[in-house]
């Protein structure tokens, strides 16, 4: 993949604007597209590698993540594998989940997160072991900060449809209330969505919600997700706006798209040429239900605050536009009706604090 030399670097701080800084810090946020394996702080990776006596190919906490210079998706996924290899026992999964939800979530105003979990990214670790640690981390993070969360188990599209089906069967066998649905991730060109119809059908029969990544794929893949995989959400989906008819259907059906401005720009997987923010603006203008998140925050040198900061600078969006993205997140969440009503109330209480008053801006957090 080619990386344009004049491409803006979204992983570094952009212009400092005090109004934007106050707004993005105080804004309540909903996180529907954040991978657990991609949200481990580099210092934690180094700690866990030491604990398990695993080498990191000579990398240190300072250079583990390349931030804005991954050669291609393949290089990014190799680093992801390295991270996955050091997270091994219940305590490890508890730690990375807790840190992701607190330091990487609640500290940035995230009130609710649906965590993408990738069991195939931790070879040799039993799925129930992963769940025990992750669920304990979710409960402790909620007790300490109030953040609510659920789980989306990611099927690996680089493996076969049969592999994906057997993971769904395992998810069903070890059913936990915290597991709300399944997703489809890893390298898109190696596993078009049509290969996973059977696995997604099994998930649907078990009452699991469904989403899938469609970042570089054509608009037709969105139809495959909706009609053949039974998805009610799309991760990324930037190319949908290339097809007015499919876009109109998604607007009509209020299909949510979980967009990730910084990671998609740095990875340039969206293929949009001049940045995913332009695509995101087109999607919003078309009337699509767009939400914003960070994908793999420390791996791309970002966090939930920074993704909103970048949109504010790139698109001139301020309180009204950014607040709408958060409200979209409430609508797109997989909480049940009462959970969603509760989340909406929490979001509105926080948004009220960012509302300009007569002659002052009351942006302070409670
Ligand atoms: Zn993703």
UniProtKB/TrEMBL annotation:
Residues 28-348 form the Adenosine deaminase domain. Gene3D superfamilies: Metal-dependent hydrolases. One of its GO terms (molecular function) is adenine deaminase activity. Its cofactor is Zn(2+). One of its GO terms (biological process) is hypoxanthine salvage. The keyword Lipid metabolism does not apply. Keywords: Hydrolase, Metal-binding, Zinc. It holds the Pfam family A_deaminase. The keyword Metal-binding applies. One of its GO terms (cellular component) is cytosol. NCBIfam families: aden_deam. Belongs to the metallo-dependent hydrolases superfamily. Adenosine and AMP deaminases family. This is Adenosine deaminase.
